[in-house]
Specification:
Pfam families: F-box, FBA_3. The chain is mainly beta and about 400 residues long. The protein contains six helices and 26 strands. It has two domains: about 240 residues, Neuraminidase, CATH 2.120.10; about 100 residues, no CATH class. A four-stranded antiparallel beta sheet has the order 4-3-1-26, with no helix packed on it. It has a four-stranded antiparallel beta sheet with strand order 6-7-8-9, with no helix packed on it. A four-stranded antiparallel beta sheet has the order 10-11-12-13, with no helix packed on it. A hairpin with a 7-residue loop joins strand 12 and strand 13. The chain is globular, with a radius of gyration of 23 Å. The termini are far apart.
Length: about 400
């Protein structure tokens, strides 16, 4: 009897090895709980901030179903060029069932503009996401970087001044990951000169390009080779370790190619444009769908959308699917608005459609059928957000991480 009691007491005193506690148990927790765990002791803080732990947590997060990060901004008449004192990040998490999302949107963080930036943050922004880090291109030369899960929000140093800033040309920056150097890189373009030459009827310009690398002790932008063409309004897309930029529609002759910037080599090359590519269309967009560069364009019938995918060799565009909302929705309204693919799951494509309102739809890639998921204006309540003016919801697929902006360890 005494022996049995002794064995029970001994079993209760058994402790788990540290590697098991951190790399098998704690690493599975959401970031908000890990932030609390760092308060347990200096040792726990050091282990959770260690590069191996951060990488393992990031990789597990990358393999999970993505959430949707929502960044609302007021963009009514006159608001486009206005500034605000803060910026909010909301999260719409995946639901219990496949291809569903939670009913409630949660405020992840609300950050005030750093006090040294007197004007604030422009209402006109464009966000890009990579491994929990969100780069915010603005209507000025200022670029912000945020990790909403850890609440870290940083104004990056000003880059080279853009002489064409008055034309409000964002998106002018995008974030990606250099696989060779294991570094997060923000790429940005700027114009040294940009004007329309009336005598020749052509765009006269001098364009530059620079990068900001997290973990680089210089904490500064560094120049790269110049882009081979003028860059226009097409949304930049990062897939793998390359960023794709669209050419400016005013360049003559208009290049029949997209520019591809390598984060590894810091150089540009060209890839052919997809069929029917429109450089400045509000309807047609480039998108990263599960690591593949895709392009969606309105067909000649003006009520269906063709989705093209760039082949792995980077030289040929292949038809991926056709989305036809004829039998499901008011195709006239659906076909006359912005159509932005966000992600794919289970053979369906989640797409944001914008006109006077913004809605999310699941589009079946095989049948082309369309099913409304949520009306962003009517179905969600952004607690603490004043949307008295016209509000646009910037949405990016999102997976949280512990990656630090100022102390990056990957």
């Amino acid at each position: 009897m005494d022996l049995m009691c002794h064995e029970k007491r001994s079993a209760s005193l058994v402790t788990l090895p540290d590697d098991l506690v951190f790399m098998e148990i704690l690493v599975r927790l959401p970031v908000k709980y890990l932030v609390r765990c760092k308060c347990v002791s200096t040792y726990w803080r050091a282990r959770i901030e260690d590069g191996d732990f951060v990488r393992e947590h990031r990789d597990r997060s990358s393999a999970s179903r993505p959430s949707l990060l929502i960044i609302p901004r007021n963009v009514g008449e006159g608001d486009r060029e206005e500034f605000d004192d803060d910026i909010s990040f909301y999260i719409l998490g995946p639901g219990q069932e496949p291809d569903t999302f939670e009913d409630k949107v949660e405020l992840m963080c609300e950050k005030a503009c750093p006090p040294e930036l007197v004007e604030g943050i422009t209402n006109f922004i464009y966000p890009t996401h990579c491994d929990g880090l969100v780069a915010i291109a603005t209507g000025t030369d200022q670029v912000f970087l945020c990790n909403p899960a850890t609440q870290e929000f940083v104004a990056l140093p000003l880059g080279t001044p853009d002489v064409d800033i008055d034309n409000m040309r964002p998106p002018s920056a995008a974030i990606g990951f250099d696989l060779s150097q294991k570094q997060y890189v923000i790429a940005r373009y700027f114009y040294r000169r940009r004007c329309f030459d009336e005598s020749t009827g052509k765009l006269d310009y001098d364009i530059g390009h620079e990068v900001f690398t997290l973990g680089d002790n210089s904490w500064s932008w560094k120049p790269t080779v110049d882009p081979p063409h003028a860059i226009g309004h097409t949304r930049p897309v990062c897939t793998g370790d390359v960023i794709y930029w669209g050419c400016d529609h005013m360049e003559d002759p208009l290049p029949s190619s997209l520019m591809r910037f390598s984060l590894q080599y810091k150089t540009f090359d060209l890839v052919p444009c997809p069929p029917g590519f429109a450089y400045n269309s509000a309807i047609e967009h480039l998108a990263d769908l599960n690591g593949k560069l895709c392009y969606v364009n309105l067909t000649t019938s003006e009520n269906t959308f063709d989705v093209w995918q760039l082949a792995d060799d980077g030289t040929l565009w292949l038809p991926r699917c056709r989305i036809d909302p004829d039998d499901c929705l008011d195709s006239v309204a659906f076909g006359s608005v912005a159509f932005l693919p966000l992600l794919t799951a289970g053979g369906r494509m989640l797409t944001m459609v914008s006109d006077d309102e913004q809605r999310l739809y699941w589009c079946d890639e095989r049948s082309g059928d369309v099913e409304e998921v949520v009306d962003l204006e009517e179905d969600i309540d952004l607690e603490g957000w004043d949307d008295s003016d016209y509000c646009i919801h910037h949405i990016v697929p999102y997976r949280e991480s512990l990656i630090s902006i100022t102390n990056c360890r990957v």
